[in-house]
Amino acid sequence: MFTGAVAGVAFVTGVVVTMVMSAQARALTPGTEVAAQLERLNVALIAMFAVLLACGVGLGIIVRYAVLKPVDQLTEQVRAVAAGDFDHAIHVDRPAELAELSSHIDSMRDRIVSAWRVATDQTEELRRSNGELEQFAYVASHDLQEPLRKVASFTQMLEQRYSPQLDERAKQYIHYAVDGAKRMQMLINDLLDFSRVGRVTGEKSVVDAGEALNIALENLSATIEDTGTTVTRDDLPKVKGNRLQLTQLFQNLIENAVKFRSEEPPRIHIGARRSGGTWEFSCADNGIGVDSKYADRIFLIFQRLHPRDVYPGTGIGLALCRKIVEYHGGQLWLDRDTQGGVDGRGATFRWTLPAAGDDDE
Do 264 and 234 share a domain, yes or no? Predict the structure, then answer.
């Protein structure tokens, strides 16, 4: 617009100057031939100005319909898509450059819409799967638990009543049946705990990690006393999380360290250090340790590195710990860089949790 205004002013100024100069030339009373030549010059200038004016008008029309109008069409179509009409196709016929640009934009729109619809379908499928998981949790906590309790209790009653009539092999079979029922109950309870993470617990809030550790130690007081375990710790900070799940996290890691102890009395240290916007916690022990080649396998559900008769359990503890940490937005891993845990022996597990705000701290 600025360039067009300057061109128009220059054009009008040229016309005015030419007319003034022509009038001044006539006032000099030149000869007949000179006057005729001036008349022809005026006609030529007027014709030239007319041609320039026509070219300017034509160029404006061309720019308006060949450039500005397609750009407006493309803009309106993009605005329609941005406003939520994702099925609106974007297309401009001309010029070729805008047509190619609109084709690229429409291809991008189509890919985004396809990905969005796939994500919507997956979200719906996930919602349905969660509903089925809740139904399974209900069945597991009620319908499956009761038959197992009956199998265990009536089998034990059978042994008590008919014990004089049973030989050692029959008693051994009864023991296997009772043990299998109890292990099935443990598996079901562990699966329920695993499925509940992030679904049926309370909201996240500012939690004192030290208090969560105190509750975990109180829950394990009998085990700690029987095994002569010594637990030391750093000053633990406040974090953002769920108090019940963080207590379960500390409890599972400490219980795991006590279970896989060496011949010496267990020694466990809980540490914490700040790392940017998160706190990095650690649980180091002086137990039997973990071979680095199994560093990923131990976090898989129901994965065991030792026979059940040597170290009891279902093999879900570390998988549950990782799920709790990931639910809080952190990571849990086996430290492969340090030389063992306490006193250069055992293992060290590390995990991160989001730090509470400075005002909360």
Answer: yes
pLDDT, tens digit, 9 for 90 and up, residues 162-221: 888 888 888 888 888 887 877 777 777 767 766 666 655 556 788 899 999 999 999 888
Establish how many alpha carbons lie within 13 A of residue 333's alpha carbon, considering only the half-sphere containing its beta carbon. 10
Q: Give yes or no: residues 216 and 328 share one domain.
A: yes
Count of domains forming the chain: 3
d(CA 14, CA 8): 10
- SS3 (DSSP) at 198: coil
Rounded CA gap, 229 and 346, in Å?
A: 14
Instruction: Please indicate, yes or no, if residue 139 is contained in any of the structural domains.
Output: no
pLDDT, tens only, 108-149? 888 888 888 888 888 888 888 777 776 776 666 667 777 778
Query: What range does the domain containing 5 cover?
Result: 1-120
Model pTM score? 0.56
Quote the strand ranges of the chain, DSSP E. Answer: 205-208, 230-233, 238-241, 267-275, 278-285, 332-334, 348-354
